[in-house]
């Protein structure tokens, strides 16, 4: 009996750290759904209790059902059939069936479509827990952003047609974007959409590297305006898989082998337009990608957590030179850094979700604000801009940091296990293979940095100053001072970059800038976690939800003890990284442009084949 | 055609998760050291009932006898897909052995109309007697099939199942109504459905509501929402008191012994195919594996 939610102290702690009733209010509005749908909450406290119970079920299924199947799924992969369809491995199909049976497939969809209407933060916790059990399953189960996109932008008719199938019917979807010549650069998409004489939209063309392209519901980015090149010629379409779309090839990959990566041919495939023409890439896919990026951050957390746990366990039991290897300082240091890295990534990812949820909340309010006066509307709009700026900065940061962290942790996890880690005997090699894609898909790390760096230049300093205004107790003032000093250096570095003409220098040193900002943000997040009061006292009195569960309403004492541990972590993290912030900012201000000016000299000619 | 199934479930101490001293000094079970759970094989019985409902229609009623706290297993049954939950609780039922328990359950089942299939786990992990199901079937005067591993067919009023007889399997056919005891190898119980969980987490029995000090209005509101767990006592069951509780329980505990298994000695196995085969055979014979 394993439960990947209740056994994770850090997720449990953060669940109590964040004021989830605020998110519940955002999601549920006036709680009128509670009158209509018998699973919908009637007030904020009930909503939070629901979130906890939902995650408990996810944790139990992940630990008991999904995790034991992961090895076989990785081994068997998927099968491409002669008729252009794909059959999942048995374990993967069983996983989808059990998640459907558990009513978890409409995690963020509104109640009226049979969904659970959970905020992004809870969905992200859920995605991490599932990914820890099987990262490749996350690529199918975690594609619920497709349903979200339909819900956000499609007509009521399309919503009615598709959304219940996701929430209740076991449908999975695919984001059908990439083409052979349009990867990171989606503006180059060629797949054609045209309207026949009856006004029916028809798709023709090829797509490549499509995760779960064999899913039931396909969300396809296509060129609807042949005369227009670039992003404004693209629209988004939805269709249900039929014989008019064939899978031509399944990619043979390094990792996430349970998730089929498909090459697809569309031949006269009828489809429906989602939202408005020409907004496909610029509005809808951008929203879809942002959600997916946080999803990858969560997937990365899950993989890293799984890999770390194996290393931790191995280091405690493996004896060399007459003692457990965890007694050696070098091994200890690795394990601590792995654990810390995970907690930092988790803090950043959850913080991202916090802003994303608030941003969405304000957008919802604005959308239904007909009865508001002008001044209130203006106020809402202003607040919304702030939240959007934060969400836009944090989303690529969480994806970048989480995925890079995941690779570091998996790398070190194999290192701790030594030769055994390199063998297939332990699942760490699978985790390391699964991890590798996370810095690549949904936008490479390099693209995440480009997406984040402008936000860092314009928003990060204000954000850090807001954090500095938190009422920190005197005993951590020395750490706050370090963070303030770091922020000042960051400000200088930003000013230096801004003085440069064009964006070349910013792009060249973007990573250092983003890294420095992350070190400072994470310092504040850890420090706040170590001193802030729990968000809700009554979390500590809850009864466990099922006869089979252990009492997970851990006491306040447990919370405080964990908080004391966070204090130790924060001190180590902030102290150790102050010098790193200085280093990064000095490097930025060095005016070193050799990567641009001396590239040819340093790398030499292209090697001959 | 639809079938009405009744699942007999038991709340048991989790003997696999002993957190402290499992036995009191007087030799009785220290329940506080053991979390209370849904008896594992009863979950397999529930799963089979839910599969029957899915395939043929009908209803699944989950029934348990115990303290009001046993409502936890009833709620869990509802989370997994049961339609109705019934708690049988009565102080006069305390100390019932398997004979008295099966008598009371038989009275309760008779209160339900149109029961087609009664399903129990093969045995409970606390007493390991495997008696209550078969005894209930005898008292109801209906056929019973124990050690069920697979439902082979269910058509009209005839059921065919595969039952495990230890060294092999038997295919057994019976007419309905029938009582089945189900093994853990029969299926993998489905998880809770979260929407059902969020709904039925509010389900309460009368005694739980009384303990929580619920108002009349609150009770009525639960009733209106179909969230009131049926609670039956022995009077409602028209049970004969001489067959209930201590009176109806011929079992007398003579002595409880705390057996501590300890390893001693070792055996050398030849590193050959034959040596391994012998060892595996030996482990199967003494039920260490298999």
Entry summary:
The complex is a heterodimer of chains A (609) and B (290). Chain A is α+β, with helices and mostly antiparallel strands. Helices cover 59% and strands 10% of the residues of chain A.
Structure description:
The complex is a heterodimer of chains A (609) and B (290). Chain A is of the alpha+beta class and 609 residues long. Chain A has helices at residues 9-17, 20-28, 33-36, 44-66, 70-76, 90-101, 120-133, 135-141, 145-153, 156-168, 280-317, 329-367, 374-417, 419-422, 428-436, 445-468, 477-499, 504-531, 556-588, 594-597, 599-603, and strands at residues 79-80, 86-87, 173-176, 192-195, 201-211, 217-223, 234-240, 245-250, 261-274, 319-320, 323-324. The N and C termini of chain A lie far apart (55 Å). With 290 residues, chain B is α/β, with parallel strands linked by helices. In chain B, the strands form two sheets. A ten-stranded mixed beta sheet of chain B has the order 9-8-7-10-6-1-4-5-12-11, with helices on both faces. A two-stranded antiparallel ribbon of chain B has the order 2-3. The A-B interface holds A 1, 38-41, 49-50, 53-54, 57, 60-61, 65, 98, 101-104, 114, 116, 545-548, 550-551 and B 11, 16-17, 35-38, 72-73, 75-76, 79, 188, 190-199, 201, 225.
What is the topological layout?
The complex is a heterodimer of chains A (609) and B (290).
Chain A: H1 9-17, H2 20-28, H3 33-36, H4 44-66, H5 70-76, E1 79-80, E2 86-87, H6 90-101, H7 120-133, H8 135-141, H9 145-153, H10 156-168, E3 173-176, E4 192-195, E5 201-211, E6 217-223, E7 234-240, E8 245-250, E9 261-274, H11 280-317, E10 319-320, E11 323-324, H12 329-367, H13 374-417, H14 419-422, H15 428-436, H16 445-468, H17 477-499, H18 504-531, H19 556-588, H20 594-597, H21 599-603
Parallel strand pairs in A: 3-6
Antiparallel strand pairs in A: 1-2, 4-5, 5-9, 6-7, 7-9, 8-9, 10-11
Helix pairs in contact in A: 2-4, 4-6, 4-7, 7-8, 7-11, 7-12, 9-11, 11-12, 11-13, 11-15, 12-13, 12-18, 13-15, 13-16, 16-17, 16-18, 17-18, 17-19, 18-19
Chain B: E1 3-9, E2 11-13, E3 36-38, H1 40-56, E4 58-65, H2 71-80, E5 84-88, H3 98-111, E6 117-121, H4 132-140, E7 144-155, E8 158-164, E9 169-175, E10 178-182, H5 194-200, E11 204-205, H6 206-212, H7 216-224, E12 228-232, H8 273-285
Parallel strand pairs in B: 1-4, 1-6, 4-5, 5-12, 6-10, 7-10, 11-12
Antiparallel strand pairs in B: 2-3, 7-8, 8-9
Helix pairs in contact in B: 2-5, 3-4
């Amino acid at each position: 009996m394993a439960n990947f939610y209740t056994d994770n102290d850090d997720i449990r702690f953060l669940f109590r750290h964040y004021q989830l009733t605020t998110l519940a209010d955002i999601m549920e509005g006036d709680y009128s759904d509670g009158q209509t749908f018998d699973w919908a909450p009637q007030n904020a406290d009930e909503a939070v209790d629901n979130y906890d119970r939902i995650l408990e079920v996810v944790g139990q299924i992940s630990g008991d059902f999904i995790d034991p199947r992961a090895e076989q799924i990785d081994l068997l992969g998927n099968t491409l059939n002669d008729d252009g369809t794909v059959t999942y491995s048995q374990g993967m199909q069983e996983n989808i069936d059990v998640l459907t049976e558990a009513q978890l497939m409409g995690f963020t969809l509104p109640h009226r479509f049979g969904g659970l209407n959970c905020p992004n933060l809870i969905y992200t916790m859920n995605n991490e827990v599932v990914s820890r059990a099987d990262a490749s399953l996350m690529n199918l189960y975690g594609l619920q952003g497709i349903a979200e996109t339909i819900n956000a932008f499609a007509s009521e008719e399309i919503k009615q047609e598709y959304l219940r199938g996701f929430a209740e019917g076991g449908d999975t979807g695919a984001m059908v974007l990439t083409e052979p010549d349009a990867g990171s650069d989606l503006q180059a998409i060629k797949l054609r959409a045209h309207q026949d004489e009856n006004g029916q939209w028809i798709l023709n063309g090829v797509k490549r590297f499509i995760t779960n392209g064999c899913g039931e519901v396909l969300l396809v980015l296509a060129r609807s305006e042949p005369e227009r090149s670039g992003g404004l010629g693209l629209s988004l379409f939805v269709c249900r898989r039929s014989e008019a779309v064939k899978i031509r090839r399944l990619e043979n990959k390094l990792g996430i082998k349970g998730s089929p990566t498909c090459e697809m041919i569309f031949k006269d495939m009828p489809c429906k337009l989602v939202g408005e023409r020409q907004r496909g890439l610029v509005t809808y896919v951008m929203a879809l990608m942002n959600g997916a990026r946080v999803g990858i951050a969560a997937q990365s957390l899950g993989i890293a957590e799984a890999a770390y746990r194996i290393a931790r366990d191995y280091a405690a039991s493996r004896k060399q030179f007459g003692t457990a290897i965890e007694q050696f300082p070098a091994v200890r240091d690795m394990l601590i850094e792995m654990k810390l890295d995970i907690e930092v990534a988790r803090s950043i990812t959850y913080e991202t979700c916090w802003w994303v949820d608030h941003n969405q909340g304000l957008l919802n309010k604005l959308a239904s604000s007909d009865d508001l006066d002008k001044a209130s509307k203006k106020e809402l709009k202003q607040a919304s801009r702030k939240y959007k700026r934060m969400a836009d900065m944090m989303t690529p940061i969480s994806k970048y940091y989480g995925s890079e962290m995941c690779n570091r942790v998996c790398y070190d996890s194999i290192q701790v296990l030594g030769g055994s880690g390199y063998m297939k005997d332990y699942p760490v090699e699978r985790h390391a293979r699964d991890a590798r894609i996370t810095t690549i898909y949904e936008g490479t790390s390099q693209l995440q940095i480009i997406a984040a760096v402008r936000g860092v230049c314009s928003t990060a300093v204000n954000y850090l100053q807001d954090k500095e205004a938190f009422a920190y107790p005197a005993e951590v003032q020395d750490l706050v001072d370090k963070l303030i000093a770091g922020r000042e250096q960051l400000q200088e570095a930003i000013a230096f970059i801004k003085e440069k003409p064009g964006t070349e220098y910013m792009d060249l040193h973007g990573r250092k800038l983003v890294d420095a900002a992350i070190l400072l943000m994470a310092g504040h997040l850890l420090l706040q976690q170590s001193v802030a009061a729990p968000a809700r006292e009554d979390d500590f009195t809850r009864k466990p939800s099922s006869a089979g569960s252990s009492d997970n309403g851990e006491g306040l004492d447990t919370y405080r003890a964990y908080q004391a541990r966070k204090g130790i972590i924060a001190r180590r993290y902030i102290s150790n990284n102050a010098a790193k912030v200085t280093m990064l900012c000095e490097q930025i201000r060095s005016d070193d442009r050799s990567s641009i000016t001396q590239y040819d000299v340093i790398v030499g000619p292209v090697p001959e084949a | 055609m639809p079938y009405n199934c009744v699942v007999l479930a038991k709340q048991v101490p989790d003997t696999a998760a002993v957190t402290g001293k499992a036995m009191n000094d007087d030799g009785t079970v220290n329940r506080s050291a053991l979390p209370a759970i849904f008896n594992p094989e009863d979950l397999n019985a529930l799963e089979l009932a839910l599969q029957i409902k899915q395939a043929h229609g009908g209803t699944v009623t989950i029934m348990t006898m115990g303290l009001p706290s046993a409502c936890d297993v009833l709620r869990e049954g509802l989370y997994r897909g049961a339609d109705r939950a019934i708690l049988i609780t009565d102080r006069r039922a305390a100390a019932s052995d398997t004979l008295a328990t099966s008598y009371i359950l038989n009275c309760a089942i008779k209160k339900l109309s149109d029961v087609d299939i009664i399903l129990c786990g093969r045995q409970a992990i606390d007493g390991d007697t495997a008696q209550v199901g078969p005894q209930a079937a005898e008292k109801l005067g209906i056929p019973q099939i124990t050690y069920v591993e697979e439902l082979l067919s269910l058509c009209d009023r005839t059921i065919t199942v595969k039952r495990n007889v230890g060294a092999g399997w038997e295919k057994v056919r019976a007419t309905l109504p029938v009582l089945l005891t189900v093994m853990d190898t029969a299926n993998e119980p489905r998880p809770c459905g979260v929407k059902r969980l969020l709904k039925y987490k509010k389900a309460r029995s009368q005694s739980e509501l009384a303990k929580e000090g619920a108002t009349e209005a609150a009770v009525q509101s639960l009733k209106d929402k179909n969230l009131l767990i049926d609670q039956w006592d022995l009077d409602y069951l028209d049970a004969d008191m001489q067959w209930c509780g201590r009176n109806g329980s011929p079992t007398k505990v003579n002595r409880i012994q705390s057996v501590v298994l300890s390893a001693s000695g070792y055996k050398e196995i030849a590193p050959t195919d034959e040596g391994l085969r012998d060892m595996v055979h030996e482990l199967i014979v003494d039920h260490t594996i298999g």
